[in-house]
From TrEMBL:
Keywords associated with the record: ATP-binding, Cell membrane, Coiled coil, Kinase, Membrane, Nucleotide-binding, Phosphoprotein, Transferase, Transmembrane, Transmembrane helix, Two-component regulatory system
Transferase as UniProt keyword: yes
Record-annotated Histidine kinase domain positions: 41-255
Domain of life: Bacteria
Parent-protein residues present: 578 to 845 of 1027
Subcellular compartments: Cell membrane
Lineage: Bacteria, Bacillati, Bacillota, Bacilli, Bacillales
Native source species: Paenibacillus wenxiniae
Protein's UniProt keywords contain Nucleotide-binding: yes
Name recorded for this polypeptide: histidine kinase
GO MF: ATP binding
Length: 268
């Protein structure tokens, strides 16, 4: 997006000159477009749950409602309030990470524990079995446990969410040179080629008819990328439209001396 002006100016020599000004507005336009998307997503994502919370609260306050029905309404209120709270938390997390204000607690831990724990929490959700394949030996990393848990939640929830009509997600933890890799594989919608380089941009969502009904904010993968950058890791993916996707997390291995099956962790 270029903008061009032509001005007539008088030079120091009193001659008249045409001054041609070219201005590249690409970045400005992109920033504007991001802002517009942000406003429309936030207003939709905030207003929809708020409208239903307000609606049900008003019914409960102003009408006689049978106890079973009242419980249903309160469950909806609870669910929608949770959605709001998640959106706000994601938004604030990302803001903090982008501005470099996020603090991380680096501790040595066994990645197997987090991977199997999060896989188990998603097992059985939305008709999916989440199978995990783990190594027999400790998978040590030095990272922030809460943030790695958040990464696993975001990836496994996407795998479940974007594979309607299928019934399995595979999570594998394996070694690769100096790293641990966690692969989250689904057999669902997949990612169109033209979307592939935008997947980790904040607020980006694939706008295909097959996924318009699936709720989300486009913040999940942006958060995953920020966390892994900050932890010295990496996120990549492979995907084919209609076949499924595999998201791959890479975290550097922590190597420590092992004595008689006891792990000696040397803090730096
Ligand atoms: P959200 O799920 O809230 O839209 P994300 O940042 O997690 O946000 O994902 C961005 C977009 O990437 C999603 O809108 C979705 O279309 C696509 N996507 C993410 N994970 C998958 C997946 N496993 N399979 C297919 N599409 C995916």
């Amino acid at each position: 997006h270029m903008e061009m002006y032509i001005n007539l100016i008088t030079g120091a020599d009193l001659q008249e000159y045409h001054l041609i000004v070219l201005r590249d507005r690409t970045e400005e336009e992109q920033a504007n477009q991001m802002k517009n998307e942000f406003v429309s997503i936030v207003s939709h994502e905030l207003r929809t749950p708020l409208a239903s919370i307000l609606g049900f609260v008003e019914i409960l306050l102003n009408r006689e409602v049978k106890p079973e029905k009242a419980k249903k309404y309160m469950e909806t209120i609870h669910r929608e309030a949770n959605r709001l709270s998640n959106l706000i938390n994601d938004f604030l997390d990302l803001q903090r990470m982008e501005s470099g204000k996020q603090t991380y607690t680096f501790v040595p831990f066994d990645l197997r524990a987090i991977v199997s724990d999060v896989a188990m929490q998603w097992d059985g959700k939305q008709e999916h079995h989440v199978y995990s394949e783990l190594p027999e030996h400790t998978a040590l990393v030095r990272a922030d446990q809460d943030r790695v848990t958040q990464v696993m939640h975001n990836l496994i929830s996407n795998a479940v969410k974007y594979s309607p009509g299928t019934d399995r997600v595979d999570v594998r933890l394996r070694e690769d040179a100096g790293n641990w890799l966690v692969e989250v594989q689904d057999y669902g919608l997949g990612i169109p080629d033209e979307a592939k380089d935008k997947m980790f941009s904040k607020f980006y969502r694939v706008d295909n008819s097959d996924r318009r009904q699936i709720g989300g904010t486009g913040l999940g993968l942006a958060i995953v990328r920020e966390i892994l950058n900050d932890l010295g890791g990496e996120i990549t993916f492979e995907s084919e439209l209609g076949q499924g996707s595999t998201f791959i997390v890479r975290l550097p291995k922590l190597t420590v001396p092992v004595l008689d099956d006891h792990i000696v962790v040397i803090e730096d």
